[in-house]
Input
Amino acid sequence: MTNITTRATRLLDRAPPSIFIRPFGICLQCRRRLSTSSTSPRNIHHRVTYSPLRLPSAIYHRTYSSSSQNPTTKRIQNYYDLFPHSLPSGPPPKGPFHIDTRQLRQEYLQLQSGAHPDRHPSSDRIKAEAMSTYINEAYKILQSPLLRAQYLLSLRGVDTAEDETAKTDDPELLTLVLEIREEMEEAKSEGDLIGLKKENDERIEMGVREIGNALEKDDLEKAKMETIKLRYWVNVKESLEAWEEGKEIVMHH
Output
């Protein structure tokens, strides 16, 4: 990801002013321990999380159609504007939070095909490469419910990715995270984790629904809290998937 962002930045240094791209944020600083009690986990570290920065203003760039060599100019204000067929209503609250990821991928592939540098004259290839990178990052954000929620909140000035205070003080959630970690430490095989994975997937599904409902009602405070919670469950999911017998459990937050 760092290489992609660096490459995009270098390309844009040489690109015409008609295109603009902002790279992902750098990394989160390590947050405080989940608790100051004696039961606090000793192996909770910070993770590098990339999040899109808010576009400072409306921008213009060329959007290429895979069925035509003639580019059309379109005003792009956010990632949703790149996918008019998949996301015709735009972001919440006007449009739904849920996205048909299959349809999104089809439109993404069409966009990438049209923006491929080989389809354009050499004078436009730098711009096409930068556009291709921008499309990639937009797709990565939109296909992930967590990254999508963080992005949508960032558009409204609410930072849940890099804000040091964006954490939960919910004692039940923090206690449950610790209990999951203990069960992972006691597991002898992947079979022992089946129940934990199923329960956590249900938490993620419920969290995504809550975020969608909140954003569609324009309840930013509720959406923020649910997004922070979802980040914990997504990190638990990653830890469960990375589990190996005898391997130290490092729970991210």
Observations:
- The chain has a mean pLDDT of 75.
- The beta strands are 59-63, 72-76.
